[in-house]
Amino acid sequence: MAKIAKPPEGSWTAHYPELGTEPMSYEDSISPEFYELEREAIFKRTWLNVGRVEQLSRRGSYFTKELAFANTSVVIVRGMDGEIRAFHNICRHRGNKLVWTDFPREESSGSCRQFVCKYHGWKYELDGACSYVQQEEEFFDLDKADYGLVPVHCDVWSGFIFVNLDKEPSQSLVEFLGPMITAMDGYPFDQMTERFSYRAVVGSNWKLFMDAFQEFYHAPILHARQSPIAARPEVQAAGFEGLHYEIEGPHRMVTTYGGRGWLLPPEMLKPMETVTRSGLFGPWDAPDLGDLPAGVNPQNKQPWGLDSFQIWPNFVILIWERGWYLTYHYWPTAFTTHVFEGNLYFVPAKDARERLAHEMAAVTFKEYALQDGNTLEATQIMLESRVVTAFPLNDQEVLCRHLHKVAAEWVDEYAREGAAR
Amino acid sequence: MSDPTNTAMLPEQFSELEPFAPTWCLATEHERYAQRLASTMDEMQAFYDALFPRAEEAIAYCEKFPLDDLPDDARHLLELLHSLVMVSFPVEAWHQPHIPDSGAAYLDLLVEPLP
């Protein structure tokens, strides 16, 4: 029995009639051909978040990002002028990977005054200009000005660094993000510099993990044993209903309730939650962040628990009512695998009590995420059987429906452009 | 016999927890998670039963110091509390060291605040 108000159309899904209500195909998650199209149609021509400005804390700070879907690596660097720029991570001389440490396939970070190729010592300024060629006189009519690093479009919104591999991006970053996302502007992301950074290789298509974290219908069931025995019947009987769903362009968000551990009787909590005053929804004692921007809990729903913003194609910002946030990234590496990154960000703990509350939130996050991750591989395996090809999605899974629809639209659009060429 | 106070890892008022210190005073989540998977439920239950009743007292001890300048014994005590968080899931929820159905799945923590 639904307890939370839905739009006048009767359901969230009907509120966005272009989504339809019929059972869905997951062919887009088990087809190598579709993945090849996604690489070109989506990932090589849209804005992708690669990190935060705090990772480039001073002039000369850099980090690299492996972009397997494009068979490339990019280096993002804060120049001596303070500007953040991105370049393909390749030396112009004979194609060596320019920036790496010990393991050529692993990501790297650090600080430098210029980039020096390990192979023949060519040097590049942090603005990409080639500044030194070893034994330059041995070359034939070589002008260093013609051999700068290959730039990648790079822009920053609210401290989040984005790159776009397209030659000429069809939209600016702010146009691409649109009003629903940019309405988060002003949230104090920059104050939340205490970071827990997780990474895993997951044996599923990237969209299946997106789906897992953009619906909470699964939460009372898959994670049932995380609740104390006394709380399980209530949790499962209540099920899950989102407070608010919103879709704008290729992006989507959900507002949910929950997480008010300090209001629950102790038998409904894990003892360690009571001791640390923390849990999945974060520390019970929140930092004072002042007024939040209009885009956070946009409908001002109460009791507010969290907002999960799914930013096309593979980036999630999840803002918790208790004054912290996390991000997810899903980087496809093949049609059946992707790299998952989860980053938790807190206002730095000022004492051991706050630090322990953060540890409780972080450890709880991992317990949940590992349950989710392994379930995805189980889903991938059986989807690939193609024994069943149409799957009913309910109204609390409306955002999953939207993700797959947008993926299909971008692939179709790319195909149409190809036909026109 | 050497003077036991020379080898103590924890503040004196927590000396009864010293037997657990060499195993569970671990600086990183990676080490704590590995120790959890390498431990039996009996071992983790014994550690939990010893520290849990004194957890509030231990937190109160550690929070007296600046987090970025903890004396060694307080830092060890905080690491022990981090390990208590780690074993609380097997002890309070799973009744086994592994997260159920997590199989060979892993999630590596690459960046974390210390301590």
3D structure, described in words:
The complex is a heterodimer of chains A (about 425) and B (about 120). Chain A has about 425 residues and is α+β, with helices and mostly antiparallel strands. Chain A has two domains: about 10-40 and about 180-420, Alpha-Beta Complex (Naphthalene 1,2-dioxygenase Alpha Subunit, Chain A, domain 1); about 45-165, Rieske Iron-sulfur Protein (3-layer Sandwich). Helix content of chain A is about 25%, strand content about 25%. Chain A has helices spanning about 10-15, 30-40, 175-180, 205-215, 220, 230-240, 270-275, 350-385, 400-420; strands at about 50, 60-65, 70-80, 85-90, 110, 115, 125, 130, 150-155, 160-165, 195-200, 245-250, 250-255, 305-310, 315-320, 325-335, 335-345. In chain A, the strands form three sheets. Chain A has a seven-stranded antiparallel β-sheet with strand order 1-10-9-4-3-2-5. A seven-stranded antiparallel β-sheet of chain A has the order 11-17-16-15-14-13-12, with helices on both faces. Chain B has a domain at about 25-95. Chain B has helices at about 20-25, 30-35, 40-50, 55-60, 70-95, and one strand at about 110. In chain B, α2 (about 30-35) packs across α5 (about 70-95), α3 (about 40-50) packs across α5 and α4 runs antiparallel to α5 (about 70-95). Chain B is globular and about 40 Å long. Chain B starts with 20 loop residues before the first helix and ends with a strand.
Question: What's this entry about, in short?
Answer:
Chain A is an alpha+beta fold.
Question: Within the largest sheet of chain A, what's the order of strands?
Answer: 1-10-9-4-3-2-5
Main structural class of chain A: alpha+beta
Strand content of chain A: 15-25%
CATH topology heading of the largest domain in chain A: Naphthalene 1,2-dioxygenase Alpha Subunit, Chain A, domain 1
Fourth CATH level, the homologous superfamily of the largest domain in chain A: Naphthalene 1,2-dioxygenase Alpha Subunit, Chain A, domain 1
| Average residue pLDDT of chain B | 94
Which regions of chain B contain 5 or more consecutive residues with pLDDT less than 50?
Answer: none
The biggest sheet of chain B, with number of strands, parallel, antiparallel or mixed sense and barrel status, is: none
Helix count, DSSP H or I runs of 4 or more residues of chain B: 5
The Rg value of chain A, from CA coordinates, equals 23 Å
How large, in whole angstroms, is the Cα Rg of chain B? 15 Å
